Amino acid sequence: MTLRRLLTIAGLVALAAAAYYVTVGRGREVCTVCLSYQARTRCPTASGQTAADAVDRARRAACDELTRTDSSRAACLAVPPTSVQCKTR
């Protein structure tokens, strides 16, 4: 295995760890929120200092995945979640 390949793998592992930390690793409350918009559903997990913060982050992540424009994102954020599950770490 070449040095370049090892560095690429190490970079990908670091990127995955950073993504996990940003979405799940911080905070004391962890919530999974399912949200349906225009016949599509996403159920991301996020964390926050409070359950409300974690739910808000998860809703925003769901709408980021489900929409492409700012106006449709705003409409998505106005839709109530289909389910919310939270737990304290």
Topology:
Blueprint: H1 3-25, E1 29-37, E2 40-42, E3 45-48, H2 51-66, H3 70-77, E4 83-88
Antiparallel strand pairs: 1-2, 1-3, 1-4
Written description of the protein model:
With 89 residues, the protein is of the alpha+beta class. The protein has one domain. It is 53% helix and 25% strand. It contains three helices and four strands. Strands 1, 2, 3 and 4 form a four-stranded antiparallel β-sheet that branches. Strand 1 and strand 2 form a beta hairpin. Helix 2 packs across helix 3. The longest helix has 23 residues. It starts with a helix and ends with a strand. The model has no long low-confidence stretch (mean pLDDT 89).
Beta-strand proportion: 15-25%
Task: Tell me the number of strands.
Answer: 4
Integer-rounded radius of gyration: 16 Å
| Alpha plus pi helix count | 3
Shape: globular
Number of structural domains: 1
Which class of secondary structure composition applies to the elements?
alpha+beta
Q: Roughly what percent helix?
A: 40-55%
Determine the mean pLDDT. 89
What are the salient characteristics of this protein?
alpha+beta; 3 helices; 4 strands
Task: Give the gist of this structure.
The chain has 89 residues and is of the alpha+beta class. Helices cover 53% and strands 25% of the residues. Helix 2 packs across helix 3 (70-77).
